[in-house]
Amino acid sequence: MLPPDNAVASHSVSIEIDASPQAVYALVSDLPRMGEWSPENQGGEWMNGGTGQAGDWFLGHNKSGEREWSREAEIAVAKVGSEFTFVVGGVEDNCTWWSYEMAGSDTGGTTLTERWWFVNKTPALQAATEEQLQGRIAMTLGSMETTLAALKATAEA
Question: Distance between CA atoms of 85 and 92, rounded to whole angstroms?
Answer without folding.
Answer: 14
